[in-house]
Design goal:
This protein has one domain: Pectate Lyase C-like (3 Solenoid), CATH 2.160.20. It contains three helices and 44 strands. It starts with a strand and ends in a 5-residue tail after the last strand.
């Protein structure tokens, strides 16, 4: 291995080791080995993979660190791969000399307001393992084009920008697993202006990614923030599974935000599965705008100051087996669906869990200007003012649900309320408990057919 100290690096945290590390990269054997110490650099260490051959960077089991005292990324890996993940599209010297650039077991710390951690450009099969990036601007920054990226067992922590930033990138096949991505001011994982396929976010702790620990004004962000509003952007074939995704509430903040500007033709955020996560403590926990073809299943989603789940201008969603609940008296709970159609809400529990009810005045499940919504086998308890509140909806079926106020002193005005105009709505075979006023408040113009419910 190319021990950077043998090429003149001091590793004392004070000496500028930029040129010594470049010397080791240029004249070494392809593995940049950093013995224990702190290696201060003032300029980016750029790794031109087509020239240097297969490259690895190793920090001796985490005992070595890079201190980036200048602007830009501490490490920039640059390849030439312009193809896809298909082996037949890989040309030139990509496999012989550029495949599998690996960075592991090293700490990267920023000592400049515009210092970044690592940047990837046109790489193939990059691997990051056991990397700590802190006090930088962006942690891991992917731009232009990359394929087959693996990020595991990393800590991307307390950076002023984004933890893992997919920025104007064409990227297929990226796995982010078993990592801690926290306290990054502009989001934990953020995707903007990009075309992304085959993204797996699994088994991570992603939390507190907002302004709170940076002493700055709040900015709308999220633990996972996906924006496909720019022309040509799309993010599809995504799994978010088995993560803890938590935060302190921040103005305009979310745990998961997926958005496209309403009015587009394709609804490019689609083919997503959000499954088995713990998601909580933000203004809105999950916010979907202009999405289609998604499942949200088996999550515990808790404590919001606005909504647990807010869906706008979306269609063909399956929401099943989720628990929506309040974790603290200062927060609330609830699901709201607006201007959407063809959505199934099955086997979910929505529970307010506080004697006073919602301070926001929001019902547990709200539908506004929706069509073809199926609600079945759900448990709605202790809603204020209502359990289910629908306005200007058509072809909504509510079947086999239990809608009760379980408090010793009832707070619910109605179990179910339909207002406005609609047709083809069905309320059947539900168990509906007593409320302060009528259990069912159904406007004559709302078009609700009531059949075989158990009511007080």
């Amino acid at each position: 291995m190319s021990n950077v100290r043998r090429f003149g690096a001091a590793g004392d945290g004070t000496t500028d080791d930029t040129q010594a590390i470049r010397h080791a990269l240029r004249d070494g054997d392809g593995v940049l080995h950093f013995p224990p110490g702190t290696y201060r650099i003032s300029q980016t260490i750029e790794v031109p993979l087509a020239d240097v051959g297969p490259c690895g960077i190793d920090g001796t089991s985490g005992t070595a660190g890079l201190l980036m005292a200048g602007p830009g990324p501490a490490l920039r890996l640059v390849g030439t791969h312009g193809g896809t993940g298909n082996p037949s599209s890989v040309t030139g010297n990509v496999f012989p000399t550029q495949r599998l650039p690996t960075i592991k077991n090293i700490d990267i710390e920023g000592a400049h307001p515009e210092a970044d951690g690592i940047e990837l450009v046109q790489t193939m099969q990059s691997v990051f393992e056991g990397v700590l990036i802190r006090r930088c601007r962006h942690g891991i920054h992917l731009v232009q084009r990359n394929r087959n990226v693996l990020i595991s067992h990393c800590h991307v922590y307390h950076n002023t920008g984004v933890g893992i930033f997919l920025d104007s990138v064409n990227l297929h096949q990226i796995n982010i697993a078993g990592s801690h991505i926290s306290y990054n001011r502009l989001g934990g994982i953020r995707i903007e202006r990009s075309e992304v396929r085959n993204l797996q976010i699994t088994g991570n702790d992603i939390e507190y990614n907002n302004h709170a620990e940076h002493g700055t004004d709040p900015e709308p962000t999220a633990e996972i923030f996906v924006d496909t509003s720019e022309p040509g952007a799309s993010v599809c074939e995504v799994t978010i599974a088995s993560n803890t995704i938590q935060a302190t509430s921040s103005p305009g903040g979310c745990n998961i935000r997926i958005r496209e500007t309403p009015g587009g033709k394709d609804l490019t955020p689609h083919l997503w599965a959000i499954t088995g996560n713990i998601i909580g403590s933000q203004e809105t926990n999950v916010h979907l705008t202009h999405c289609r073809g998604m499942t949200i299943t088996g999550n515990c989603i808790y404590s919001c100051s606005h909504r647990n789940l807010l869906i706008e201008d979306s269609h063909h969603l399956n929401l099943s087996g989720n628990v929506f609940r309040r974790h603290t008296p200062k927060k609330g709970t609830g699901v709201r669906i607006e201007r959407s159609h063809d959505i199934a809400l099955t086997g979910c529990t929505i529970h307010d869990e506080h004697e006073s009810g919602q301070e926001s005045g929001a019902s547990l499940l709200e539908l506004s200007d929706c069509q073809r919504i199926n609600i079945s086998g759900c448990q709605l308890s202790d809603g204020v003012p209502c359990g289910l509140d629908a306005a200007n909806c058509s072809d909504v079926s509510v079947t086999g649900c239990t809608i009760h106020d379980t408090r010793a002193e009832r707070k619910s005005r109605h179990a179910v309320r339909f207002t406005g105009t609609g047709i083809g709505n069905l309320l059947a075979t539900n168990n509906i408990g007593p409320t302060l006023e009528s259990a069912l408040a159904l406007a004559e113009t709302s078009g609700v057919d009531v059949q075989s419910n158990v009511t007080p």
